[in-house]
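Example 3.2
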Amino acid sequence: MSDYAGKKIVLYFYPKDDTPGCTIEGVDFNNLKPQFDSNNTVVLGVSRDNVKSHCKFIDKFGFRFDLLSDENEELCKLFDVIKEKNMYGKISMGIERSTFIIDENGKLAKEYRKVKAVGHAQEVLDYVKSM
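Structure, written as tokens:
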């Protein structure tokens, strides 16, 4: 956090690298990166994927922001984003797509839970601009 002192942070949690919804969300945040930059805001994506997977995902789509690997789920647990999921009748624990906006003073300003990927990055940018 000290690396981003004086900046707003968009911390978005997503289930898995290079899957349809996660790709849509990542590409949208990437396309809006110049506008986040001009609003003194850093975008960081978080999933349980390893660093190698993140590097492939970043390279494939040309992301210009960092993805954080949380294989041990420390950050996921801190933000309470690990939830029970039901996919075609199979129950598992996974990341619920969620986004947190942290203000320049390191305080949580806004949270979004059960996010739908399409249009979410723009919604977050609109909120950041209003801060």
